[in-house]
Amino acid sequence: MFNFTAQLVLQNPFVVFISFALLILALEITIIFMKKRFPVLTFLLA
After folding, report:
1. Where are the beta strands (DSSP E) in 1-46?
2. What are the distances in angstroms from CA 5 to CA 8, 17, 20, 21, 37?
3. Cα–Cα distance between 18 and 12 in angstroms, integer?
4. Residues of 34-46 as b/e, b for ≥16 C-beta within 10 angstroms?
5. pLDDT in tens, 6-29
6. Segments making up each domain of the chain, as ranges
7. Does the pTM of the predicted model rise above 0.85?
8. Distant-in-sequence, close-in-space partners of 42: CB < 8 Å, separation ≥ 6
9. CA torsion sign, 34 to 45 to 43 to 20?
C-alpha cells in the first residue's frame, strides 16, 4: 500500500499539492464555522 502511494506521489506531485490545499481549506472552513458557533471556544484555543 505504501509503495503504491509513494509511486503515485512521485508520478503526480500535483495531486499531493491539491490534496494538501483541500486539507488546508477544510481546516479554514472548520475554524470559521467554529468561530461563528463557539466564539468562546476558539478564543480559548487561539
Report:
1. none
2. 5, 14, 15, 18, 37
3. 10
4. eeeeeeeeeeeee
5. 887 788 888 888 989 999 999 999
6. 2-45
7. no
8. 31, 34, 35
9. negative
